[in-house]
Sequence to fold (283 residues):
Amino acid sequence: MNNKEKYINDINNRFSGKTKDLLLKQVELFYEDNPNIEKTKYNVGDEVKLSKGTFIHGIYGGLDNFDFTINNGFISSDFTQTPRLNKICNSVGMWNIKEDITLKEYVELYSGFTISYIIDRGPGSKEVSELIPYHKFDEITEKINNDEKIWSYRGAQTKEVRFIPSLVSNKRQIAFILNMNSEYAKKLSYNDVWNTEFDKEVLESFLDYRYVDTFINKDRINRDASTTDRESAIMFGLPSTLIEGVFVGRKIEKDEETLKYIKKKLPDCYICNLDGKVIIGNN
Fold:
């Protein structure tokens, strides 16, 4: 039995109704002989630009997990591993670029932290969350401390710091940049758990039971910079053919052998660093 057959059997055994039909169609699309995906061309030293709708996905570990992703695609761990422990299930998390931005700007923004603060006290109070870029902590907290309307605040690392290369952590060293501009990619990415067009019957199959009421009954959660408002969760997964670039952390940037290995595996893709610069081109 090949992987496609295995996933189809799993879906037939675990799902029913509209959810089963949706996932079976997603698997067929995943394994479709898709047309050549356009890849942005860069030379060494070029500044990487991320267009709206681009996906970024980081992986843990080193080249073993890199190889698994290249060979199998981005498939939900709920189909490849047990036990199943994810809050948002049977889907693959992607960082969804919400507006055109350079990679350098993106890294600086998401290597910062999320601050949540309460404006005023009593019945009229409200909580606001926003992203604070790297090295802007002192500037922002000084401003908040001098604002009489802000009663209290708290800060936390961004979720990106946990999952992709950043300026503040070496825990993640590899992330993939996916080009989502093609019609093929858009068909796959439509099946996003955060897509408000899906109803409760479908969504319940993609949520941990502790998450169902909050997620569905409050219009997919009050998404803000803290929850976050920049994620997608693609049902089943996405093929590795959508990769156009590899984004590496400081350790791998200095590791010539690993860089050569990545380029050999993905010869038509570029490799870039935390400065947002291309270190190995694909032009």
